[in-house]
Amino acid sequence: MDYTNLLNEKSGKKSKVGIIGATRGYGYTLLAQIPKVKLMELRVICSRHPEECLNVLKEIGYEETRIVFCENIDEIHTAADQSILIVSDYRLVMECGITALVECTGNTAVSSDAALLALNKGINVYMVSKETDSVCGPLLNQVAEKNGAVYSLVNGDQPRNLLDLYSWAKLLGLEIIAAGKSSEYDFVWNRDTGNLTYTDGSGRIEHMPEMIGCWRYEGEKTLQKRHQLLEKYEEVISADLCEMNLVSNVTGLKPSTPFLNYPIAKTSELANIFIPEEDGGILKKTGVVDVFYNLREEDEASFCGGEFVIIKCENEKMWDILKGKGHIMSRNDKYACIYYPYHYMGLETPVSILLGDFMGIGTHAECRQVSVLAGVAQRNIPKGTVLKVEGHHHSIDGLVPELLEIEVAEKVAPFYLLNGTELLKDVKKGDPVTMEDVNLSSLKTYQYYKEGLEIK
Predict the structure, then answer these.
(1) φ, ψ for residue 33 (rounded to 5)?
(2) How far is 292 from 281, CA to CA, in rounded Å?
(3) Is the pLDDT confidence value at 23 over 90?
(4) Threshold 0.90, pTM exceeds
(5) Closest by CA position to 178, among listed 83, 289, 48, 86
């Protein structure tokens, strides 16, 4: 998209931003970028630990003299217009004169309530908390549409970046075979030493000279050999499947398999892998979402958790020209891979906010619950076990995530509604947790999920 109209914006209007869950991770990267964006200003941040907010703002370089702690609406209303407010109650954020709410907590109860409060006031909502969108996305998009507000996923996280790439391809009339992303960490191999590093921050290095035997892609047998060598590093990551859940719900693309395929692949191989089995690929059906592990040498650029689409090449002469430009195509010249090798977190997010606040772009009224993120027992889990979402990947101990088409998931309990619930009965290894296994009736988010299911 050409952003010249926004760059030339002369009305004096600015996006006034409020951020909930602002001090760490994604929220921190956005806070660091806002001062660089002339059409945007930070109005309020919210955290359960307001003293952390002050420390973070000072660290980034915000003027301490402008920072004001507010405990109630009266204090908010008496604060100067140029003040940066800090509140500990997320419900106060909507009282601060903001045009844009950015939700980063990852807490489905907080973020869904905050989003609905904002949207019903006509305040635009930019959802970073993918956990919430996975269960409430259809409803939140509908509420935004009804109130003339914007509800948007954000650039900088893979779902929105992939949706941008997907919509670009659809606009051009391209047939999309698959869409997806690379997982968070790479497998990096040193051809000279034979050492392999998995970039999860653990510092693990393994001497693996036998990787040379499956370094060049020769079909599915190559993927099988890589899997055998690296199986102990592989896992189905909750965040990956959740992100593909969001894309599925907006685009209508289905999960390739319940656990997704996760082939270990180089970027140059993707157009040979994410294609139908009859053409030498791994897909049993097309029109799907999927994830891969990026394999590369030390001196090769990473895919950076970026996004891709595999499209069908329909005009042989045109694609012969494009192949000559170096674009990634399958060996049979029937498919091509188009990709963004990045997601820059909060550094990119101002783009989504400005597109929403100034141009009304972002809401997907067509969003439906196309797929459901479920939790499958990795072992026998006894009645009385309390399930808890925790850790960097927002996983649940004892459960492996599974992305199911809605048609076969009617009784399945959505993964991110399970946090804090107690099992009412034993769950056997290999079985998904269902709505009969837990009591979700008291959760507002469960009611929002059910309302979303009613949208046709």
Answers:
(1) -90, -30
(2) 13
(3) no
(4) yes
(5) 289
